[in-house]
Amino acid sequence: MATITKENIGLLHEKLTVKLEKTDYLPSFEKALKDYSKRANIPGFRKGMVPAGLIKKMYGPSLFTDEVLRSVDRELVSYLQNDKLDIFAQPLPLETDIRQLDVNNPADYTFHFEVGMKPEFQLPDLGAAKITEYKVEVTDEMINNEITRLQNRYGNMQDVGSVTTEENVLNVIFSEVDDNGHDLQNGIKKDNSLLLKYFKESFRSNLVGKVTNDYVLVQLGDAFDEKELDVILSDLGLDKNDPQSLTRRFKIQITKIGLLEKKQLNEEFFNQLYPGQDVKTEADFRNKIKEEIEAYWKSQARNQIHDQAFHQLVDNTEIKFPVEFLKKWLKTQNTSAEKQEEPKSDEQVEQEFPTFLNQLKWTLITDKIVQDNAIEVQPEEIRSFAKQQLLGYMGNMGTNAEDQPWVNDYIEKMMKDRKYMEDAYNRIQTQKIFEWAEKQVKPAVKEITADEFTKMVEAHQHHHH
After folding, report:
1. What is the DSSP string of 103-126?
2. Residue 371 in contact with residue 86, Cβ under 8 Å?
3. Which H or E element spans position 172?
4. Using CA atoms, how far apart are residues 80 and 116, in angstroms rounded to an integer?
5. CA pair distance 15, 114, nearest whole angstrom
6. What share of the chain is helix, strand, coil (3-state, %, to 5)?
């Protein structure tokens, strides 16, 4: 009868010794031989009539090894389940001489494995954490800008003969040139479309009166203010932090001049944007826009609460790890049944380990939250997620397609896609974890402008890259 003993060899690091007796594997080996002799198709012998000695000679060693290793695996799994050992990954075999297995001299065998134990730990009290809920004030300027954006987006474009107003839309070609205004060989060349008012106020007079095919020669820093300049430089593939980008010379040639006729603020326009929502007056329209802007910034503020909760959990949860075991396990992750690649080098492991450990820490934290709070994801939630995702892709078209039979056919297809199911499951579970965290925190409300909020988020993202 097989026995398994456990010996501590480091922090949360155990050595398992499996002692296998002949009686643990011989019966299944002999049965495997008999089954194989019945199925074997060897020239010169009728099927099922191959002598047992020949089968043993030809296939015995591999069948013998398979049965011994299968018995070891069976005993290990049973031991881990019965003793409720919570381990990382899979047991790693220590050096074992497979050559000791001899089909002609069955014996008792000993195998050694090492396992990394999952640690016990406590989560910090999110209720005591300093969390800030940012409240962005929605100003009249923000509402006016959004209304103007919608009027322009749904407006009509008219071709005109010359540049006359700041509202003219110019289709242009940016061509990089030398000091004499000649096109540079291999220089940057890019189409763009921009309003006259995107240029510096002091520069706009250089364009007024121009017609199609006219051009101006400029250094980018002279033509655009900082905000628009960043966009132009990015579009041209230039580094905004490189001072030389501002002094590069370009020919900006006009290919088309348009004038945008803004959409009128009337009930027809309101109904186009908000069908069936009883938006009849400009005041109704402004209130609707304000609600949408408030909802946007509220969702952004909520994301910030989630981000703060994440850092509280990661930074203030102390977890000990079986580091030596995990490094050994990580080293084996370059090999697979399909790709017999070289194991990772020690240098690779050391380089990857900090990121791996951070991801593992978050996995343990989320697993504990899920288990302690019985967080579950139901199949119907995945169906609903798939449906909302599809309708979201379709935009306005999705409002009329919701009850179409093909929508349900699509969802049924996605429910059979294992990769999609895993991804949807993880996303819904993560959402539920942060919803749980949101209920634990007691944030202090802080009023902030939209500009301050955006800069704060950008600085935070920059810090983490």
Report:
1. TTS---EEEEEEEEBPPP-----G
2. no
3. strand 168-176
4. 12
5. 4
6. 55, 20, 30
CB 177 within 8 A of CB 187: yes
Entry pTM: 0.76
CATH 1.10.3120 fits 278-463, yes or no: yes
Distance CA 228, CA 313 (A): 40
Q: In whole angstroms, what is the distance from residue 298 CA to residue 292 CA? A: 10
Q: Please identify, in words, the CATH class of the domain defined by 156-261.
A: alpha beta
Start-to-end C-alpha separation, the chain: 56
Residue 104 near residue 61, CB atoms below 8 Å? no
What Rg, from alpha-carbon coordinates, does the chain have? Answer: 35
Q: Which letter does DSSP use for residue 87 in this model?
A: B
- DSSP labels, 412-434: HHHHT-HHHHHHHHHHHHHHHHH
- CB neighbour burial string for 423-446, b if at least 16 within 10 angstroms, e if fewer: ebeeebbeebbbebbbebbebeee
119: left (phi over 0), alpha (psi -120 to 50) or beta: beta
Which residues, listed in sequence order, are joined to residue 161 by a DSSP beta bridge?
none
Assign domain 3-116 to a CATH class.
alpha beta
Listed in order, the ranges of the chain carrying CATH 3.30.70.1050 are 3-116
Query: Which residues, in sequence order, are CB contacts of 15 under 8 Å at separation 6+?
Result: 6, 7, 8, 9, 94, 112, 113, 114
pLDDT digits (tens, 9 = 90+) for 83-101: 999 999 999 999 776 678 9
Paired tokens of 224: 């655009």
Q: Is 341 helix (H, G, I), strand (E, B) or coil?
A: coil
Q: What is the tens place of the pLDDT at every residue in 2-32?
A: 999 999 999 999 999 999 999 999 999 999 9
Backbone torsions φ then ψ of 252, nearest 5 degrees = -110, 105
* Structure token pair of residue 337: 């049944």
pLDDT tens-digit series, residues 95-122: 776 678 999 999 999 999 999 999 999 9
Nearest to 111 by CA among 238, 196, 24, 198: 24
How many Å separate Cα 421 from the centre of its chain? 15
Distance CA 62, CA 66 (A): 6
- Assess contact for 172 and 194: CB atoms under 8 A: yes
Residue 12 has φ and ψ, to the nearest 5°, of: 55, 30
Q: Which two tokens stand for residue 284?
A: 């109704």
